[in-house]
UniProtKB/TrEMBL annotation:
Source organism (scientific name): Serratia marcescens
One GO cellular component term: plasma membrane
Membrane-topology annotation of the record: Multi-pass membrane protein
Swiss-Prot/TrEMBL keywords: Cell membrane, Membrane, Transmembrane, Transmembrane helix
Pfam family name, one: TauE
Keyword Transmembrane found: yes
Main subcellular location of this protein, as a coarse class: membrane
The UniProt record lists the keyword Repeat: no
Transmembrane segments: 6-39, 51-71, 107-124, 144-176, 183-204, 210-230, 242-258
Entry's localization field: Cell membrane; Membrane
Family label: Belongs to the 4-toluene sulfonate uptake permease (TSUP) (TC 2.A.102) family.
Protein name: Probable membrane transporter protein
Length: 261
């Protein structure tokens, strides 16, 4: 495929992919790259796994930033925690992305799909430790558990080239007792930081397409607007968000497993 001369059909697929990514980031704080990567590989049919990962990380980071501004305007973001978590996670992301670049792309899709299955299962399991929005912003676990976990989270995100929002949201719920809405909004700070660091690493190796990124962002803006609006409507119906998100992850994971086996 010539990445600089797309057919109208391919452009529409890119915009649709970006729209799904932006929608999920705004609605759940996650699901960006973990959905973007299989869609680019199998729906848009871009053959280079590393190019897909690098480009996906860039577009998800930008979409996360745009959705972050929307959530910030509504006062949902816990900035102090988000910035500190971002700094620690990015250190892991940079190390993980270096390992990902030297790994054959064929061997990245299987762990990617397995991780999606795990996340789908965890998403369906109701988190009883989540706070009610009035909980203390301080960690409820010992720092010796919290910060190595955040570092490892960043390393996994960097290795697989994902924004990591679906990992960050549970971490904010479990470790910091955020409400789901606060966790979703604050996770966008971390997702944008990790996505930018991962994409920068891949860009240095020539594995980021700015053209594809631009079209994904166009869709991401449109999807993000819908996602933020729906989040406000469903903030008291968290189970709906959880089930929809898990169902989509399950379908995509099974398809990736089918294609990679």
């Amino acid at each position: 495929m010539d990445f600089f001369h797309f057919t109208f059909y391919t452009l529409m697929l890119l915009v649709i992919t970006g729209g799904i990514v932006g929608f999920l980031l705004a609605l759940t704080g996650g699901g960006g790259s973990i959905v973007c990567v299989p869609l680019l590989l199998y729906m848009v049919q871009i053959p280079d796994t590393h190019l897909v990962i690098g480009t996906s990380a860039m577009s998800v980071a930008v979409s996360a930033l745009l959705n972050l501004f929307a959530h910030a305007a509504k006062g949902n973001v816990r900035w102090r925690t988000g910035i500190v978590v971002s700094l620690v996670a990015v250190a892991g992301t940079l190390a993980g992305s270096q390992m990902g670049k030297i790994t054959d792309g064929r061997y990245l899709t299987l762990p990617f799909a397995l991780l999606m299955l795990i996340v789908a299962g965890l998403t369906l399991k109701k988190n009883h430790r989540a706070g009610n929005g009035l909980a203390s912003p301080d960690a409820t676990f010992h720092p010796a558990i919290v910060w190595p976990s955040v570092l490892a989270l960043g390393a996994v995100a960097g290795f697989l080239g994902i924004g990591g929002g679906f990992l960050v949201v549970p971490a904010l719920l479990w470790f910091f007792r955020f409400s789901l809405l606060e966790a979703v909004a604050t996770s966008l700070v971390v997702v944008s930081a990790m996505g930018l660091s991962t994409s920068a690493s891949y860009a240095l190796s020539g594995k980021v397409s700015l053209v594809i990124t631009c079209w994904l962002i166009v869709g991401g803006v449109l999807g993000g607007v819908v996602g933020v609006a729906l989040t406000e409507r469903l903030k008291k119906r968290e189970d709906i968000i959880r089930v929809l998100y898990a169902a989509m992850l399950l379908v995509l994971a099974l398809y990736m497993l089918f294609k990679s086996l």
